[in-house]
Amino acid sequence: xxxxxxxxxxxxxxxxxxxxxxxxxxxxxxxxxxxxxxxxxxxxxxxxxxxxxxxxxxxxxxxxxxxxxxxxxxxxxxxxxxxxxxxxxxxxxxxxxxxxxxxxxxxxxxxxxxxxxxxxxxxxxxxxxxxxxxxxxxxxxxxxxxxxxxxxxxxxxxxxxxxxxxxxxxxxxxxxxxxxxxxxxxxxxxxxxxxxxxxxxxxxxxxxxxxxxxxxxxxxxxxxxxxxxxxxxxxxxxxxxxxxxxxxxxxxxxxxxxxxxxxxxxxxxxxxxxxxxxxxxxxxxxxxxxxxxxxxxxxxxxxxxxxxxxxxxxxxxxxxxxxxxxxxxxxxxxxxxxxxxxxxxxxxxxxxxxxxxxxxxxxxxxxxxxxxxxxxxxxxxxxxxxxxxxxxxxxxxxxxxxxxxxxxxxxxxxxxxxxxxxxxxxxxxxxxxxxxxxxxxxxxxxxxxxxxxxxxxxx
Length: 459
Prior knowledge:
Organism: Candidatus Seongchinamella marina
Domain Metallo-beta-lactamase: 34-217
Protein name: Ribonuclease J
CATH class of the largest domain: Alpha Beta
Helix content: 10-25%
Number of domains: 2
Strand order of the largest sheet: 8-7-6-3-2-1-21-22
Keywords: Exonuclease, Hydrolase, Metal-binding, Nuclease, RNA-binding, Zinc
Largest sheet: 8 strands, mixed
CATH superfamily of the largest domain: Ribonuclease Z/Hydroxyacylglutathione hydrolase-like
InterPro entries: Metallo-B-lactamas, RibonucZ/Hydroxyglut_hydro, RMMBL, RNase_J_2, RNase_J_b_CASP
């Protein structure tokens, strides 16, 4: 495996790529999960890919974390635009907090645009931000960067890979992805499209590492349907299910399970309602699946009740956390009720989630989680090792750059890429300068990075 190599003098203070240069600089999301903010540089210009948040998980804290954009905001006159690959908070959530420092046009697909517009409106920026909506498969030129959007499956609608072409080289930025032949919502991926990229002789693939330690493949969203139906139909009391709010496919699977078992369904939590409305607006929601007013839930017999609630990660203000603590205004759980965690624990959230679990246990509530031998009730939106092997076989890049993961995820990804015959693997962290052309290498710590903590109102 190729180790990081110093390729620029240490006194190189003003970093500006020349016409022969193609650079990648992560300001967030490399060596961590969350806070994704990526830069590409060529011929004196810069492009941002994704602008996401993280969360402060200290007990009692309720804050949003954003990457420090200081390096690129100081070069705002050279910034040609920002591209958002999909609607997850760790990729789009920081736009409303950081845009006034960046002052650049923003490009995304329709579902992400609906989510982003709501955030911009809350921040008073809706009329200020030039937001451009592009379809999957679109090609667009921003400054010296030729961009092509390539649709791929993930756990939110309209996830995109981004092909970035310049006169110095070509990069595939995968964003978050998985191979899913039955995604339940939206189209599947097109294998031939990805195989055709090998003919371009890509200089690099900058790729998702979240499940690079997981053997095999990530199951399809379609594979979860039977397991969720089994759990919901077998429950005797109320059912509360929690999942990631932007996973529209999972929300629809839960809603169909409620309908099939004769249960009235309600949404508890603003992010779920917002994502449902965005899916409805963009045609990703089955209009036959409806919800009742949450305030009516308490008047129904337990066996006729199902709720989808925010709080899969133990967030202090989320609906499930309040339900577990017994202070939600519309629902009180009782012995014999069931709570379904149709989600995974994001690293760093384990203690917060465990506090919620213990509060539920104290109420004698049945907890259903994904186990090795139980029904399949969750699948990751990220590629397992066999999925990654397919990607490298089909795309055949010259360099692999693992991102979107903690250090052990990045190392596992790099090792796998080497086993797949990728000639060079570049490992680094936030603030490192990855030079893709003319001479590949890494300058560690070339750019000052950090994070900002934004306290939420009411916290």
